[in-house]
Amino acid sequence: MARDDTPKTGFRDAILWHLTYTLGKDPDHAQILDWRLALSHAVRDRIVDRWVEATRATYRADAKRVYYLSMEFLIGRLLEDNIVNLQLADQAQAAMESFGLDYRGILLDEPDAALGNGGLGRLAACFMESLATLGCPAYGYGIRYEHGLFRQSFADGRQIEAPEHWLQQPYVWQFERAEASFTLGFGGRVVTRDGKLVWEPENLVQSEAYDIPVIGWRGDWANTLRLWAGRAVDPFDLERFNAGDFTAAAEAEALARTISRVLYPEDSTEKGKRLRLTQEYFFSAASIRDILRRFEADHADLRQLPQKVAIQLNDTHPAIAGPELVRLLHDERGLPFDEALAITQGCVNYTNHTLLPEALESWGEGLFADLLPRHLQIIDRIDDAHGRAHPDRRNTVRGDGRVRMGELSFIMSNRVNGVSALHTGLMKTTVFADQHRLHPDRIVNETNGVTPRRWLHSCNPRLSGLITETIGDGWIGDLEQLQGLEPHVADPGWLARFAAVKAANKADLCNWALREHHVTLNPDALFDVQIKRIHEYKRQHLNILETIALWQEMREIPSSDWTARVKIFAGKAAPGYFFAKDIIRLINDVAAVINADATTNEKLRVIYLPNYNVTLAERLIPAADLSEQISTAGKEASGTGNMKFALNGAPTIGTLDGANVEIRELVGAENFFLFGLTAEEAEARRTLPDHAARAVSADPRLTRAVEAIRSGAFSPDEPDRYAGIVENLTGADYFLVASDFGDYWRAQREVDFTYADRDTWARMAALNVARSGWFSSDRTIRGYMRDIWNAKSLLGQG
Ligand code: H2P
């Protein structure tokens, strides 16, 4: 092959061409990394033409563009996603095998881009894929964190955090866009010039753009995920360098890069808070400038902006984008303030992802004024305008020395949405009750969804194969077609094949667990999985308490016919969230004791897999039998993991919370293990004095489990290690672990009983698959396009 050969002759040749000419490697000496990069380049080439064509089509149609602003895009690995969406899997596999390579090994060599922390960030990634699938012109805007979320390991059961280095190797999916850089200001003061208020920032930082193309299913359309990195305006001080002060010479660069180093820096300190607000303004402001630049390239009249631009704020993190747009339109483009505000409100929408007070951001006025003095003035004017229009309002953006971003986001937005029916209803009656009274049409619901390409077709090839064989492959682009499986569920032959798929997935997981973690799992046991961020409201401690109680009972009556279980946990705790870190350590301590117990060993195992990320989820979900969705009712806004499990044939044990409610309605109450207080009952229970202490003493199992923790049964070297957890469980117990324990225990025994009859279980699992088609993020995005963005598909989809 020669340099002049185009890399497009055939896919296999293209890989070789890139290996030779892009990477400069001889196939005889190439390493796995080289082959993966060569394959990635060959795949990328096939994206670029469609990407360019999609951009051209958008300009030609002068179409409205959607801009999804998000602090997180939890994209994970992209090579397989891209191969699958381009329908190149067979060719890629054949090519790699023809070179004597293990195709899956190559795919797994890619680092997992952990640019997010949980459901919010993964939702953003699913949305990007669905937007491309539906041909809706859209851009994702976020931050290119050099280290993303931390890498988790355990030492003595404790969480240890280390930086993630996903960018250490060349990252083929990104295109650096040196031309799309902006200079952004921070701090300084506001002065009056020619009768106008003008911001004179003190510090300047450069935003550098990196574009990642996102290709939709069947490769018909590609959008852009644009991530910003911080750079210094003057990266190198030669004078200081020549004076011998080498570190100081690079100080400006180090400081600017701090902005895009890590996701969610610890913000219990003032410096941490300042960095977080800096990050939020940095990516919001860069994105807004980019949006305006693109609009102004073709349009002279700024009043047209709401017809051409829809901006989605993914939670309050990018809320400052609103005031920034007002500032650019008013201060810099000279529009009257009211007009600038009306235009902005015509573009901006806000998604709320949680009602927990900790997540409704607010900033101290001092910090805010120091970093963004002009924005604070603009926010006050926005707030005043809202007050004038609604003299009977009860809330303001400013109050108690804070700037409240939830209120700001609400009053700046055209539409505000919740992420499940229950959550949206609660928004209207609790956190945003007053705003809803004033703006009864503003709040809408868009129940979350997940992309079926990644979360069924790619991650569970066996099940995908069986489904396609049964109903054709139309379901991949139209998930509701899964309903077509329903008649087959009654066919014992088909059901046996369905059960065999799960068994094979579980066997894979067992092999992997043995190889990677040196643990032996019984493939015949029920795989009971809880994987998500560690948080008190998600109640991993309820699960471990039930595990302890079960173990105690097994020891007491070893002869009983116990259903064998493997309890699988994975998830990270925020570095500053000490209670959550205690929960992790407790689970690890309990696992060590239980797994070492020869009397129960065959029937009960507990494993906590470190460093939960997208790749681990893709491995665990297809092998799960039972999905733990056990949050305190009213606290989990939606959940998306719950949807992935159902879609992969793992029935849920869960509360009436978030999208569990909708899952249960669709899969049928008889195929869902319900327990626990409702959101309303939970509210009422909290007002009962001593509710936790009473619940503990009323339930001998719970008493005994709590007592084991209290007495140091799992931490003999430090008996009071979990005094904090015990105190909480028997004291305030805001998340009602004790109150829900008894019913959770009951539901778990129902699970045991049902699982003992494998045909019944397989039928339940299969019906979960057949009836989960509604949870596609394609359906969710169609909803946003229709109800919120008023955006059109350029592929006629929707
Ligand atoms: C959050 C909510 C979930 C929701 C998700 C996406 C913040 O994700 O808690 O209930 O499904 O956003 O809307 P998570 O807890 O997984 O970090």
From TrEMBL:
Q: Which reaction does it catalyse?
A: [(1->4)-alpha-D-glucosyl](n) + phosphate = [(1->4)-alpha-D-glucosyl](n-1) + alpha-D-glucose 1-phosphate
The UniProt entry, under NCBIfam families, shows: P_ylase
* PROSITE patterns assigned to the protein according to its UniProt record, in alphabetical order: PHOSPHORYLASE
Keywords from the UniProt entry: Carbohydrate metabolism, Glycosyltransferase, Pyridoxal phosphate, Transferase
Entry keyword Transferase: yes
Functional description taken from the UniProt entry: Phosphorylase is an important allosteric enzyme in carbohydrate metabolism. Enzymes from different sources differ in their regulatory mechanisms and in their natural substrates. However, all known phosphorylases share catalytic and structural properties.
What's the cofactor?
pyridoxal 5'-phosphate
The answer on whether this UniProt entry bears the keyword Kinase reads no
User: This protein's superkingdom?
Assistant: Bacteria
The record's similarity note reads: Belongs to the glycogen phosphorylase family.
Q: Which InterPro entries match?
A: Glycg_phsphrylas, Glyco_trans_35, Pyridoxal_P_attach_site
Name of the protein in its database record = Alpha-1,4 glucan phosphorylase
